[in-house]
Amino acid sequence: MKLVRTTGRGKAEAQRVLLALEGRQESSAESVAPVVRKIIGQVRKSGDRALRRLVAQLDGVSPQSQLQIMPDEMQLAWNETPEAVRGALQTAAKNIRAFAERQLPGKWSLAPIPGLSTGQLVRPIDAVGCYVPSGRHPLPSSLLMTVIPAQVAGVERIVVASPNPARETLAAAHLLGVDCFYQMGGAQAIAVLAYGTETIARVDKIVGPGNLYVTTAKRLVAFDCAIDMLAGPTEIVVTSDKGNAAYIAADLVAQAEHDPHALAVLVTTQPSLAAEVIHEVKTRAKSNPVAKESLHTRGFVFLTGSLDEARTITNRLAPEHLTVDSQADLSWVRNAGSVFVGDYSTQPMGDYISGPNHTLPTGGLARVRGGLSVMDFIKLITVQSYNRSALKSLGPSAIAIAEAEGLDGHADAIRSRSIGRGKTSSSRRSAGA
């Protein structure tokens, strides 16, 4: 990890590094965009025929294999999964579901004046596609994190797409009762979910993380099919002055092992803690090649001159995962996907079992949104109902605004109901002509 001092001679270098990290959302998407556009175009033009060719070529699925994984195959995967893993999946699912249920907003109504009722309805999206990566590691946890909030929201049709899904991923699908699971991945899966084929109907929204090809495809289809967010490599920031160096280093290594391009940062005012963490990270990453590469290229320790500066840097980074020392620190946190408090709140617990979603904003997107939640699967529909008395009470104010905007038709529509037999704007214009 690289030590970056924000004071003295290191100040200019620190600002350069910070500016580069703040712009990290600009990925290398353009490098793969031509290939991704071609794949999307082929699926849109040739449907199932193109999909079959692409999954054989890119996902290694035999042309004779059935793309849809049937419930009995998921049942078999569940039966063959070790009991300890089944129990862990059940615990995780229970916690994720309870958290999503608590997040789910309800309908409500309000009466600003007698005779007027306003409120909201909560309705689920009709169909969603949940993308579950299957690259370096099987990710049954990502299936739980994407499917469960959709189920809690009441989504009627949930389609899971995953290339070469592992037994544990299929077991998780069985646990949740998933009945629409396709073994397909990459840009071709995103194209199918967004536009459909002869045998697979399109969805209304695509959620879930993926590699550069998946993320680029989501970006390209986003005007035709809603998406959750553009997820990049995982990120961890630990902002601490009194944390345990071994615990901090363990968390940095844990997130760094996801991806050679993962971002791992410690922000502290304490030189001794900075030195201890750097030493611990080097020791712990020695036998973890992915983490070692990531920490070498994208690992930083910011040694700041004050607590205020440390907090400012943290919020500028807007990290996916943030660890802080105490509950009191939550008061200054403005930008973070998910916050972990104290020595024992290790970030992998959030990846698997705590309940809050692990599909989180990266690349600084935490400045404007939080992680995936039940809110991503619902629509809030507003409702308003007037009787004549209420319209007559508020109508004149609305008419005044409509006329100020030069929208006489708006004013006339209100006046015709609330003012009774009075002349409309159009009749006044005719009389004066």
Automatic annotation (TrEMBL):
- Give a yes or no for keyword Aminoacyl-tRNA synthetase in this entry: no
Family matches, as InterPro entries: Ald_DH/histidinol_DH, Histidinol_DH_monofunct, Hstdl_DH
GO cellular component terms, alphabetically, are: cytoplasm
What enzyme category does the UniProt record give?
oxidoreductase
Pathway assigned to this chain's UniProt record: Amino-acid biosynthesis; L-histidine biosynthesis; L-histidine from 5-phospho-alpha-D-ribose 1-diphosphate: step 9/9
Gene Ontology molecular function: histidinol dehydrogenase activity; NAD binding; zinc ion binding
Q: How does the cofactor attach, per the note?
A: Binds 1 zinc ion per subunit.
Q: Which cofactor does it need?
A: Zn(2+)
Residues of the active site: E320 (proton acceptor), H321 (proton acceptor)
- The residues the record assigns to binding substrate are T234, Q255, H258, H321, D351, E405, H410
Q: What does this protein do?
A: Catalyzes the sequential NAD-dependent oxidations of L-histidinol to L-histidinaldehyde and then to L-histidine.
Q: What is this protein called?
A: Histidinol dehydrogenase
- Its source organism is Acidisarcina polymorpha
